[in-house]
Records
---
Amino acid sequence: MSGEPVLLEVEDLSVDFELRGVSVNAIQSISLKVSAGETVGIVGESGSGKSVTSLAIMGLIKEPGFLRSGAVRIFGEDMLKLTSRQRRKHLGSVVSMIFQEPTESLNPVFTIAQQIDEAFKAHGSMDRAQRKDRVLELMKIVGMPEPEKVLRSWPHQLSGGMNQRVMIAMAIACNPSLLIADEPTTAVDVTVQQQILLLLRRLQQENNMGMIFITHDLSVVSTMADKIIVMYAGQVVEVCDTDDLFQLALHPYTEALLKSLPENYSALNKRMDSIKGTQPAAGETLPGCRFQPRCNYARELCSQQKPVLNVIEEFSPREVRCFYPLVSDSGTT
Amino acid sequence: MPSLLSVSKVSKTYRESTGFLGTREKEVLSEVSFELESAQILAVVGESGSGKSTLARQIVMLEQPDSGEIFLHGKPLQSEATVHQYIRMIFQNTAASLNPHKRIYQQLEEPLINYAGLSRSERANRIRQSLEHVGLDAGLVSRYPHMFSGGQRQRITIARALILNPEIIVADEAVSALDVSVQAQILNLILDLKDEMGMSWLFITHDISVVNVIADRVMVLYAGKVMEIGCVKDVLENPLHPYTRKLLQCVPKMGASLNMDFNEELSSPDVVVPSTGSGCVYRNRCPLADQICGESEPPVISSASQSVACFKA
């Protein structure tokens, strides 16, 4: 989205985990930008580093994990250089996050009202009555039926979809500029998913929020994101505009991922193209490309040298980490 | 000839706590009837709370239905021991359905010891065959479950389900927790097993795009009642029940933008609970509902390959 101010700038972010004295790379030099009103989708399979990326942006990487390099700038201010007290002021009011398992993310021994109120206690200067009004207002914003009754309830009395609405209400309580949604609809039914996606989209439009939408589901991300980042084994392998990605995947992994979606197969009893093998285990290092052992197009060079993320001129501004991107002439061999 | 599995008017009610000392009865399955033929995959779809897993538990006899009967080859299901030889079940959470303290070999051997009465070397043979069927290296049997990936563990639970040569496998969200690339591998495996061994599957899922790939027939459940059942092609291309249409409409399509003028209030299952009392259970979410839908049970309208319970179909 041109013209909108850049909210978030992540530069060369790397996170390692130290396991039994050995340092294991979880994400390697991730860079991304999010503007106001823009949605950036991060897709990848489990273990690809999606969630570590979001936790690192929030400054929530804990032992045994540590930041090896990188900067996370929100409105130009480096979040990673702040003290934890300063960062706490930003969390919630500038950048906020919702998680996959709403029921597990809520505290079972507090009522919904108490938990939403906590966000205001931490940030605002409102008195009790003002906070109470605002909590009720939030419940209405997220489309909660019978808001007064829900506010008196405990998380276990609500369904997964309702709890996710509560989580969203907490996340947007202090009008954050940036919302990170980590698999927000993975644990709910398709019908509820549709509602949650609609709700997020509406809130985003109303507040011109920037959003990072993390998911393993390419269909979901395609309906939400303006730009998509595909991750594999801790690296970004392809970055491009959403519409372009579904026209033509340039990285072999992206292509394989699209081919293993069931919705692309309509003929009954036809076998699907699956990706052979599994992702390299954490700590496993390869001399060449991380996807090479599973790649159908791999050549000699791929097992010897590490590819870098390159801008492909003819498909600019698309970036691909591959020696032989699947542009029509070289990809088919 | 009788069907392989015939489920006739099965109902199940659970007691639900309503607070201190209070209980309330909740009907989770209501007169569910369907047939499963050999070498067929029947998908069961519906939102959470629709009774999919309760239905599975009745079929593998983990629970007894309150009313109705289940027939295998025309004979009523009786003892658990016979059921366990003919009908096996696999689950979504592979880490929880394998015992973390036992080696894979012991876990695969257990059903053979309990039900097959084979010698030690025959058992070893069967375990090797079973692992080969699911595409796993038989040399890995002395490992523990945590040493495998999620996809490999699901292969192991399928191998364990296959080991008694059952006729039916009930799979409860068996691929839902897997990554798409691994999911494709397991779906291919299920289709291979159906073709090679003539095995039938009751495939419970919430993911309709998977149904399209794998199933021959599909049954749509809502609040414990069958809304629509029929050939996959007919039901997905020409859904007759408003609920089936709603489900299909909510499946995100790749590359399509979000449909923003969707009627938010009517379609929210977390907002609207199923109707109770007489009449159609779906009526308070249904855009077509009118007076008649609240008065009596909708009739089941059947054609050769599809049947639907709706006044408006």
Note: Chain A touches chain B through 50 residues (CB under 8 Å).
---
Amino acid sequence: MIVDLAIIAVKAFLVLFMVLNLAGVLGWVERKGSALIQDRIGANRASIFGFAGKGLVNTLIADPLKFLTKEDFIPPAGDKLLHTLAPCMALFPALVTFAVIPFGDILIIGDHAINLQVANLNIGILYVFAMGSLGVYGIVIGAWASNNKFSLLGGVRGSAQMISYEVAMGLSVMGVLMVYGTLELQEIARDQGALIRDLLPQWLDFLRPIIGWLPAWGVFLQPLAFLLFFTAAVAETKRIPFDLPEGESELVAGYHVEYSGGKFLMFFAGEFAEIVTGAGLVTTLFFGGWQVPYLMRDGFHFPWGATWQLPNLTVVVFQVLAFTLKVLFFCWLQILLRWTVPRFRYDQVMRLGWKMLLPLALINIAVTGIVIVAAQ
Amino acid sequence: MDASTLIFFLLAGLLILSSLCVVFLRHVVHCAMALVVALLIIAIFFVTLHAPMVGILQVMVYAGAIMVLFLFVIMFLNPTSLERVRGVWWGLATALALLLAALLVPLFSSESTGDSVAATELFGSPEVLAKSLFNDFVLPFEIASVLLLVAIVGAVVLAKRERRSNGAA
């Protein structure tokens, strides 16, 4: 009993620790990455005993210290209580969503089989959407409590944008749920360990030599859903090209104009935590989660028949490593996007969400349904 | 008293407190946020009653979507403080509350709990809910969805008509 509780506590702590730290490191990746993309040097000023570490000291130590020691300003005409609560409301959903994302299969230590996922809920993906829908409050309340025109405009834009893209996001996942037939993210990740040749129906047998060797990852079975989901996930993080709620050239800084010091840092950390969570979701739903191609529970089983036996611990290390690398890749992709694409106009954002993503997601659901029925 | 009972009473107390806040707080946005808290606590109750699906839908639909629309409207209209409530409404509200309380008295005083059915692990799970929605009650479900579609089309038509008259004027 106590051991089980301790295992859950350790898992929860580890995931929270990793997400928060990855969010911090992403701050550095963003600064140095943007410098790389724009042919600059980037953050390189602060140093401790001569160690600047390519700007790591800036981002990991100097920046947070600066934020935390700055004056915390609350607009006199604003709402003190809600102005203080809003950053927490923004950060909380971003941090707790990762609880249902599995980062490995089952680790066996002694007689304990540990499911490498903090919370194994049978509603899985719905929990993600529920928490995502709560993320709107941080923006709306923060914007309103600041008692500032620009904030309010940013908050209104933010809430409209997030609600619109939640619809497209939810419907785009529907195809994946239909294919794997479950809401549990751990089950979805596990099912992606199969090979496509095992899933092909009789009448598609001629495709077996061409694509049969591919793992049954979501991106191969639901390519359109992947594009839709990733677009919606980027829009949910409210970063360029979807940063209309902030829109510096129009709204100063949008919903967090009136935030400074530690509270601004919380909004900032929430945004990066959302990037990590979005990357984790894309990995789990479309890129096999912790799956390494051809790696089963007892070792590698290659499609040409060769096998390579491995102990449980090695397999789990491979899995966690694969998951981490995939998540890092999608974090980097989001940062690359942010520094490559210009900002949309607001009507373009709404048109993309409602007139492109939504109908495409509905078509995807219909086609997936027809294919599944035909394959039976 | 075991831990789950303790948690229930703790949450129930918080629920009553936040519900009172919805009614008595001066500012509309504060009231709305108190309502969000109340809805979230009810969602936790659903989860503890073996109905996680209903709980999560409560969060998604009520706390996540409908309350955001409430806030949207409040932010656009921005009523700085509530107008003073008139005495007639207080009287009516008190009468209704007393009536409700009177209805609850026999419920609490009766010994038997009625037809109690033991909730299984699967009760309220997505599978069971989906089976009953799409097999047993598929017709009412479809009728409800058509009703919603009609409402959406109606809203779009009304919004369009408004714009045309604005353009003419």
Note: Residues 1-82 of chain B form a domain with the Four Helix Bundle (Hemerythrin (Met), subunit A) fold (CATH 1.20.120.1200).
